[in-house]
Amino acid sequence: MKVQCAICDRIDELPTDLPLAKKLRNRPIHTYMCPPCHERIEEKTLARLATGKFIFYKTSKLIENEF
What InterPro entries has UniProt attached to this entry (predicted)? Predict the structure, then answer.
């Protein structure tokens, strides 16, 4: 299955039997990110979290605890 990164437009080939490939086929709202872009975003997010000025809201867990 050919997939295109949502950030850098790089085209990769995924085996069709991977769970990620199935998720991308069955749910068009999900997007693919290539490994270099994913690592870059992860590093920058962790750096922002380490500063203490960045608040990471986890809305789904907050809503579950309120009820």
Answer: DUF2197 (IPR019241)
Other C-beta atoms lying within 10 Å of the C-beta of residue 41: 12
Phi-psi region of 3 (alpha: psi -120 to 50; beta: other; left: phi over 0): beta
Residue 9: HSE in the Cβ half-sphere, 13 Å Cα cutoff: 0
Asked whether 58 and 65 are in contact (CB, 8 A), the reply is: no
In total, how many domains does the chain have?
1
- Note the pLDDT tens digit of each residue in 11-59: 999 998 999 899 998 887 888 999 999 999 999 988 988 888 877 776 6
